[in-house]
Design brief:
The protein has 203 residues and is mainly α. The chain contains twelve helices and no strands.
Length: 203
Amino acid sequence: KDDFVTAMKYINDAIKIVDDYIYYYLQKAFILKRQGKFKESLEELNKTEKNVSNENSDLYNDRALVYKAMGETDKAIEDFEKAIEIYPTHDRAYGNIADIYMEKNEYEKAIEYFTKQIDIYAHPYYYISRGICSGNLEDVESEKNDYTTSIEMFPDYGYAYNNLGIIYYDEENYEEAIEQFKIAIEKDSGIISSHRYMGKCYE
């Protein structure tokens, strides 16, 4: 694991055999990114765009992730949008844009993109992300609905119960909060906030 030299050797060997398969080049860029070599990764992706293909959505999604890691969020969003233009049902690209807006505290924009992502692929984690954004906008009803939907889809994911518990705690509905925190801890004992809030409910 994490033997990047060996990984790169085998990718380069594969390219010598088939030099027009774009995913070999994307893997090469990914290996560089994993090592924190963002400039080299970006250079590899730019060469791939020029010499192999400029019509692959994963190329732009991957390059956007490098830009994001470098803190160049505007360029990242631009490339995520290119990925979506090529492949309109690229749910990860929508989610990646939403994550950027969420990190910028632009929650309305984040919700817009999480909603587009959910319309393509209704994963329970996406509902939790959108619910967190709604909570930051003090739209508690939408927040609750998203956590509840997440639980209905995937009952074993503890964070949805944890987040519901925090809502009930803030509403001073301690009995219901405790119930949610108990379930969260049962599902995942490593959720620290569930333990902390459980204690606060008894103060």
